[in-house]
Amino acid sequence: MPIRVLDPTVAAKIAAGEVVERPASVVKELVENSLDAGATHITVGIQGGGIDLIQVTDDGEGIPVLDLELALERHATSKISHESDLQSITSMGFRGEALPSIAAVSRMVLTSRARGTDQGAYVRVRGGIMERKGAVGCPEGTSVTVQDLFANVPVRRKFLRSAAAEAGRIHTVVTQLALAHPQVRFQLVVNGKESFASPGSGDLRDALAGVYGSDTVDAMLEVSGTDTEGRRTWGYVSPPSTHRANRAAINFYVNRRWVQSRLLLQAVEEAYRGLLMEGRHPVVAMHVDVAPAEVDVNVHPAKREVRFHHEGALFSLVQRAVRETLVAQSPVPLVSPSASASSPMRWGPTPTQEPLPWRDLVPPREQSSTNDLPASLPAALPALRVLGQASGTYIIAEGPGGVYLIDQHAAHERVRYEKVTQQARERQPEVQGLLDPQAVELQPAQIQTLEEWKETLASYGFLGEPFGESTYLLRGVPNGLKDASPEGLLGEVLDLLSQARDPAQASDSVAASIACHSAVRAGDMLSHEEMVALVRQLEGAESPHTCPHGRPTMLHLSANSLEREFGRR
Ligand code: ADP
Ligand code: MG
Fold first, then answer.
1. Half-sphere exposure (CA, 13 Å, Cβ side) for 343?
2. Which residue among 66, 68, 404, 482 is least packed, with the fewest CB closer than 10 Å?
3. Where in 164-240 does DSSP place strands (E)?
4. What is the arithmetic mean of pLDDT over 79-99?
5. Is the per-residue pLDDT at 366 higher than 60?
6. Does ligand 1 come within 6 angstroms of the Cβ of 99?
7. Is 25 in the pocket of ligand 1 (CB under 6 A)?
8. What percent of the chain has pLDDT over 90?
């Protein structure tokens, strides 16, 4: 075939594929246009999963009559004009691609009346070709109606899922935009029924309640932080007692744009380290506001990914802000009594409801996770009175709010962990010198790890020096080891270090390993004095509620739930 320049309508169809992947991407582009137009109220109506109909109506500034047709041209935008504008984008859109792309693959009607004018106008386009235009009476603002999406692109249509699944994606897009813009009132109407609404009060908590339900949101903790360069982070995170099986409820917004960011995800996961059970994930809605020039949003046509110029600064800002909130406020998990009297009492941290799968287009709302009990207790430990020990494993104690069961190993691990971490920070580890230095045989990879992390190892009390090619002469180990041999512990720690991603994680895993091997074990009988001493130390811990691996150190059986279980109330 000879080379030919493609017909504009074919070129537009191809380009449309990048921006308009499915109904949800149409909704995202249209709503972002409404936001850019300064709308305070945006209504999204869909039918047939958005394939049959999508209508987005706003009360924004509107489009002047004379510009209406131009808005449908490729690379026509009112948002940037110079290449240099790309350095600091403050609007959601800027590529001038959405309207022409959508128009190329659907039947579209664009109706608008510019603010302060008294006449509106409309254009009707089918498959990218203008069919009709004219004057029309309409309220100020813009309304875009998209019908028969991909009717002229059968391959794309084949890739769409069921109407319910596509509606689910639209629901996600609209809720994310509502969380990104709590000051805007959003309404999603699915097949004539309202399926989501946010009040537009400007309070992120109100928008969150519409998405996750007020029970979850009531328990969430407010986070905010700034750094000296003017970067700001703010939002809400769940306490460690509220968690999910996947990361679907972790949301980030950069300059009001919903983004997927590994960097921010890692910062948050780092903040929860040691507080959340392994394999569980928090509910998070965190905003990051930085100077537009610090972030590149022009990485991907759908603008879901961004690049930051100062990754390290942003990482520590978010990690520190979330960590500080969690440490200051995370509460003790409650023992949750069984819902019905006939089933056995369940001792465990309060379970959290998973989001419901999509069903009948009903938005997933969390149910109350703790019938009418308070979700949790305040962060600081109350003074506890030790009553005794059960199974050689749990310390039973009493406090003002009821009865507490403390896992002696987990509790001691937490105490030891914080102690060795502090000593390492001050470079004053408690060392147990070995009378006879031990020659430990090491693999070449272990020697390399040892070389790489020798400062860290020394700060925790591993002392010694290389001895020949493959031998290390161990002269001292961290004090207080209960069950591990010095060389066994060194081997374990080297394995952990070889997997560490960064110095913080390296230190953390060494500390956790030492803590584990120097803590009392389950099954160790403790005297009353020993238990009292342990509980006092735990009360003084920075994060007393979980062990370094994230398991709870204690469970609480509240006075209320005891009364209920015994039928006293
Ligand atoms: P972009 O958003 O990248 O500029 P679009 O193709 O999405 O490109 O929109 C083209 C232009 O149409 C916008 O720059 C804007 O001027 C105008 N426009 C689109 N939607 C709206 C709206 N809801 N309200 C006001 N103007 C709009
Ligand atoms: Mg746009």
1. 7
2. 66
3. 185-190, 193-198, 221-226, 232-237
4. 68
5. no
6. yes
7. no
8. 53
Q: How confident is the model at residue 302 (pLDDT cuts 50, 70, 90)?
A: low
CATH number for the domain whose boundaries are 213-327: 3.30.230.10
CA atoms within 13 A on the CB side of 217: 16
Q: Whose CA is nearest to atom 8 of ligand 1?
A: 96
pTM of the model: 0.62
Q: Which atom of ligand 1 is nearest to the CA of 60?
A: 24
| Ligand approaching nearest to the C-alpha of 94 | 1
- CB neighbours of residue 76 within 10 Å: 14
As a whole number of angstroms, the distance between CA 450 and CA 199 comes to: 57
Residue nearest to atom 18 of ligand 1 (CA): 33
Rounded CA separation 485/493 (Å): 12
Nearest to 554 by CA among 423, 439, 408: 408
What whole-number distance in Å separates Cα of residue 111 and Cα of residue 122? Answer: 4
Q: What is the DSSP letter of 331?
A: P
Atom of ligand 1 nearest to the CA of 144: 23
| Burial per residue of 17-38, b for 16 or more beta-carbon CB atoms within 10 angstroms, e otherwise | bebbbbbbbbbbbbbbbbbbbe
The token duo for 520 is: 């009392």
Q: Return the domain boundaries, the chain.
A: 8-196, 213-327, 358-569
33 in contact with ligand 1, CB cutoff 6 A: yes
Residue 286 pLDDT class (50, 70, 90 cuts): very high
Average pLDDT over residues 521-540: 92
Nearest atom in ligand 1 to 29's CA: 7
Q: Are 63 and 56 in contact (CB under 8 A)?
A: no
* CA end-to-end span of the chain: 85
SS (H, E, C) 149-183: CCCCCHHHHHHCCCHHHHHHHHHHHHHHHHHHCCC
| Ligand 1 centre distance from Cα of residue 103 (Å) | 13
Q: What is the pLDDT of residues 18-56, one digit of tens each?
A: 668 899 999 999 999 999 999 999 999 999 999 999 999
Beta strands in 452-492 (DSSP E): 463-466, 471-478
DSSP classification of residue 66: G
pLDDT of 530 reads: 92
Contact assessment for residue 199 and residue 186, using Cβ atoms and an 8 Å cutoff:
no
**Is the minimum distance from the CB of 182 to ligand 1 under 6 angstroms?**
no
User: How many C-beta atoms lie closer than 10 Å to residue 309's C-beta?
Assistant: 12
Rg for the chain (alpha carbons), in Å?
30
Mean pLDDT, rounded, for 545-569: 86
How many angstroms separate the CA atoms of 163 and 185, rounded? 25
| Higher pLDDT among residues 280 and 224, named by residue | 224
Range 108-144 burial, b when 16+ CB lie within 10 A, else e = bbbbbbbeeeeebbbbbbbbbeeeebeeeebebbbbb
Q: Does domain 8-196 have CATH number 3.30.565.10?
A: yes
Which CATH fold would you assign to the domain 358-569?
Answer: formyl-coa transferase, domain 3 (3.30.1540)
Backbone CA torsion sign across 212, 215, 216, 221: positive
